[in-house]
Amino acid sequence: MHYEVKAFRDKASIVTLPIDAVSESEAGLAAQRQGYTVLGVSPSHALTFALPRRRSRFPLLLFSQELHVLLEAGLSLVEAMETLAEKEAHPQSRQLLAQIMGYLFEGRPLSFALERSPSVFPALYVAMVRSAEKTGDLPLALSRFIAYQTQLEQVRKKIVSASIYPVLLMVVGAIVVVFLMAYVVPRFSGAYEAAGRDLPWLSRLLLDWGKLLHSHGIGVLLGALALVVATGFGLSRLSVRQWMAERFWRIPALGERIRIYELARLFRAVAMLLKGGIPIVTAFEMVQGLLHPALRAKLKLAVKAIREGQPTSQAMGAHDLTTPVALRLLRVGERSGNMGEMMDRIANFHDEELARWVEWFTRLFEPLLMTLIGLVIGVIVVLMYLPIFELAGTIR
Fold this sequence. Notes:
This protein has 396 residues and is mainly α. Among the domains are: 2-43, Roll (Ubiquitin-like (UB roll)), CATH 3.10.20; 60-148, Up-down Bundle (Receptor-associated Protein). It has 16 helices and three strands. Helix 8 (201-215) crosses helix 16. The radius of gyration is 30 Å and the shape is extended. The chain starts with a strand and ends with a helix.
């Protein structure tokens, strides 16, 4: 996004700098790195006729894996960053790595350099690195983040792979229905009109719809394309996705599964921070942004109760942030003093439970979907041939 930064340098007059950045904070930091003192940052309202370009996403997981391997091989942090920058082919990623190396050459810690790019390195990642700098074991912290991110990716992949076949069924079914209505049905309509016979009401209705689609095929196609484009644009908007998420949360069975998924992600993130030496209250505060707003408000109340001296299990259970299994494991973790390991087990248990539910749901939903598609196609075919069946009955 384009920003206008009002700034001055030394005793020079105030200037307005056009800067392309992800957020206002990063635009201000970019001006500061050029030696300016920033007075204000505002989005640029200049008209442009260029097509919007999608900003490439920095591969944080791949970056962590490569940095972990290089550090484990014995390279220093600066050498590892130089190696990653040399092999990087994407200009934006190379620029980001060069920016990080610039801070390292100034003697700044890695966490400070990462904190300068909040849109790329979340607070969770920065806190993990800062904690590792205190203990001097950055490779171990990176391995924990890699394991954390890998587990989340596995859950997402299971959900996506389970939804591919139903979506494919719906697309193929829609194509078959459109082909029958726009191509086959109008030809039956012409044959029946030439015969001059009276048609049943349902068959006549079907044939009228077929003729309508056939005569206005271009308009229907353009309308369908416009609907697809509008849907894609809507899904790209954060407000639309939040509105859809709110509706999904209100579906009883689905809303409960989404809640369990969010709680599993919460416990896994907190477990990673606890293993890195971060206090539990600080860890909960840092991961609040991962949760749905409704759960986020409950977590704030639970953190307040923990800060006031309540046990973690009691505070989380009182604000509906646990399941029966999670509550028992939290109590075990409090007695053993190993909350990080217990929260990791809670996350693993609920991830496996969610995977089993997704598998069960797809096994039930796929046959029902196939039955529905077959029923729709069957009704269309029967209504097309119904006048022929009546004619055959009359001949007999």
